[in-house]
Amino acid sequence: MRYVYAILSALFVLFAYFQLNDPDPLRWISVYLFAAILMGLGAFGIKNKYLIYAGYIFFGSGFIWLSPSFYDWITIEQGQNLMQRMDNSKMYIEETREFLGLGICLLCTSLLWVKSKR
């Protein structure tokens, strides 16, 4: 699992890099770097339950906060064309992308938590 955590950590660092051109880069860089740190620590065998819980709170609160935008995307766009250009009249598209990114962070944190219980 250490290699999986190391690969995930590297991917989250890459995700953070891609946020440099985002309208709110500091928020999303911090999200992805926190996920990278969690996975990096997991790669070294360090699984601190308090950091994992903090990850759940950090990622989960944003996930819940952005869930209405995901619902809008499902109902208005019928779940299609998530890669279209940003438009101020369709903010739910960008927020759905952010929602899914937080979902990935939550899944990886869950993987870390399950493996730390063993």
Radius of gyration: 15 Å
Give me the secondary-structure category.
Answer: mainly alpha
* Pattern of helices and strands: HHHH
Quaternary form: single chain
Q: What distance separates the N and C termini? A: 12 Å
Helix content: over 70%
Uncertain ranges: none
Mean pLDDT: 89
Largest sheet features? none
Contiguous helical run count: 4
Number of strands: 0
Beta-strand proportion: under 5%
Morphology call = elongated
Model description:
The protein has 118 residues and is mainly alpha-helical. It is built from four helices and no strands. It has helices spanning 2-18, 25-43, 49-76, 91-117. Helix 1 (2-18) packs antiparallel against helix 2 and helix 3 packs antiparallel against helix 4. The radius of gyration is 15 Å and the shape is elongated. The model has no long low-confidence stretch (mean pLDDT 89).
Keywords for this entry:
118 residues; mainly alpha; 4 helices
